[in-house]
Amino acid sequence: MDDNEMTAEPYKIKMIEHLKVTSREEREQFIREAGYNVFNLRSDDVYLDFLTDSGTSAMSEQQWAGMMLGDESYAGSRNFYHLESVVKEYYGYNYVVPTHQGRGAEHIIARMLIRPGTYIPGNMYFTTTRAHQELAGGTFADIIIDEAHQPSLSYPFKGNVDLQKLRDLIARVGAANIPYVSIATTVNMAGGQPISLGNLKQVRELTQQHGIKIIHDMARVAENAYMIQQYEPGYSDKPVAAIVREICALTDGATMSGKKDALVNIGGFLALNDLALYEEAINLVVLYEGLHTYGGMAGRDMEAMAIGITESVNEKHISARIKQVQYLGKKLLDGGVPIVLPVGTHGVYIDATAFLPHLSQLEFPAQALTIALYKEGGIRSMERGIVSAGRDQNTGEHIFPKMELVRMAIPRRVYTNLHISLAAEIAIKVYENRNNISGLKMVYEPKYLRFFQARFEPL
C-alpha cells in the first residue's frame, strides 16, 4: 500500500476531546491497580484507546442534529419508523426489533431458536454470541476454513466457511438439530477477516437443501462489502451499498450492533424476514428490553443510527476507514512486528505467539502483550486468546485457541493518521524489547466472559 493514499481524512474536526499524557511510572501504577487487565483501567488514564471499535466512533454533524429530533414517546416513536425504513432500504430485511445493543439481539434469537442439545455452526466464535448460544443449551461448532487459524498466511477471505466441515456436522448431528448457521461478515476473532460472496452463496445453497436458517452477525457488513468490492472478482464496479444488499439477501435474519458500522455509541437491532419469528421476538423484547418500537434505545439514538447506516455505505467514508487500518498494518509490518495477514477491516491483530515465543499459552502471552503496550505508551488494546476463549462448559478446562492475538481496534473517525503512526512506533519499540516481557497468572476469574473482569499478577 502506498503511504500517499493516507495523506488526509475525508472530514474536518469540529470538536476535540483532550487526551491525558501520563508517565511510565503512573501507567505501571494504574495497570497494577487494574489487576493487569486493561478493561479495569479508567479511560482518563489511556492515551490511545484501541480497546474496541464498538460504540467508540465519532458521530457526524448530521447524526448530532438528528439527536435533537428524538421522539421519546413510549410507543410509536417516529424515530423507530425512520430506522425501520432505513433497515429495509439498505439491508432488505422485512422486520426490525430494536435492542439496546447487539448482544440483546443475540439473546433474543438464541432464546427463540436454540434448544438444549442443538448445535450452532459458525465461521469462528465470537465471545458474546457463543455465550448466548451456550446459555440457551446449544453447542457452538467452528466451521471456518483452516486458513483462518494461520496468522502469517495472506489469504483474502479468511472468513469463509469450510463447506465440508458444515456437511460433516449435518451428517453427524442431523439438520433438525441445527437451528441456524451463524455467519459473521468480517470475522472478529480471525483478525477482522471477510467472507466472500461466492462462499456465502454456496453456504446458502447447502443450508436451503437441509432447511437450515442463516442468521447474520452484520455489525461490520459494510466493511465486509468493501473488501468484496476490492478483492473478489466481478465486484469492483459495484457500489458498497449494492453489495451489502446482496449479502443480506442470502440470509434469513440478522443481529446488529449499531455501535460498529452504524456509527453510534449505543444501540442495535434484530432483523427478520419471517413474520411468525418477528411476532415471537417482539413478545420477548418487551420482557427483556422495552416496547417493540424502542427496544432498549431512546428515540434520539434510533435517529442517529438511521443516519449512521446511510453514512456507513458512503464510498469515501468506508474507503478511508479501512485504509487507515491498513496504514497501521503496514507500519507494523515495516517495523518487523508479526501481525495477522492480510490486514482486516476494523483493526490490526498482533500475533502474540510469534511476538512472545518464550511464553507458553498458560502464561497468557496476549494478555501480557496488552500490558506491555499500555506501559510503554498508554495504548489500550484487547486480548483475543486463551483468556477470551474461556473454559469448556462441560469439562471446565481452559479452551486453547489456535491463535493468541492482541487486537488494536481503531475507532471510526476518531484518531488522525499521526496518532496511528505514533501507535505503530510504540508497538515497534515494545517488539524490540520483547524479551523483557514476562507472563501472567490469573488470580480472579468470573464465571462468564472472564476477559472483561479477570485479574492477574506477573509471574
Structural commentary:
The structure is a single chain. This protein has helices at 24-33, 61-67, 78-90, 102-113, 127-135, 163-173, 197-210, 221-231, 240-248, 275-288, 299-312, 315-334, 352-355, 365-377, 386-389, 417-432; strands spanning 48-49, 95-99, 119-122, 139-142, 180-184, 213-217, 253-257, 268-272, 347-351, 379-380, 382-384, 405-409, 440-444, 455-458. It is an alpha/beta fold and 459 residues long. It has two domains: 3-53 and 315-458, Aspartate Aminotransferase, domain 1; 61-312, Type I PLP-dependent aspartate aminotransferase-like (Major domain) (Aspartate Aminotransferase, domain 2). The strands form five sheets. A five-stranded mixed beta sheet has the order 2-8-7-6-5, with helices on both faces. It has a three-stranded antiparallel beta sheet with strand order 9-12-11. Helix 8 (221-231) crosses helix 9 (240-248). The radius of gyration is 21 Å and the shape is globular. The two termini are 40 Å apart. The model has no long low-confidence stretch (mean pLDDT 96). Its cofactor is pyridoxal 5'-phosphate.
Task: Considering the chains and any ligands shown, give keywords for the structure.
single chain; 459 residues; Aspartate Aminotransferase, domain 2; five-stranded mixed beta sheet; globular; Beta-eliminating_lyase; tyrosine phenol-lyase activity
Structural topology:
Blueprint: H1 24-33, E1 48-49, H2 61-67, H3 78-90, E2 95-99, H4 102-113, E3 119-122, H5 127-135, E4 139-142, H6 163-173, E5 180-184, H7 197-210, E6 213-217, H8 221-231, H9 240-248, E7 253-257, E8 268-272, H10 275-288, H11 299-312, H12 315-334, E9 347-351, H13 352-355, H14 365-377, E10 379-380, E11 382-384, H15 386-389, E12 405-409, H16 417-432, E13 440-444, E14 455-458
Parallel strand pairs: 1-10, 3-4, 5-6, 6-7
Antiparallel strand pairs: 2-8, 7-8, 9-12, 11-12, 13-14
Helix pairs in contact: 1-14, 2-11, 3-11, 4-5, 4-10, 8-9, 12-16, 14-16
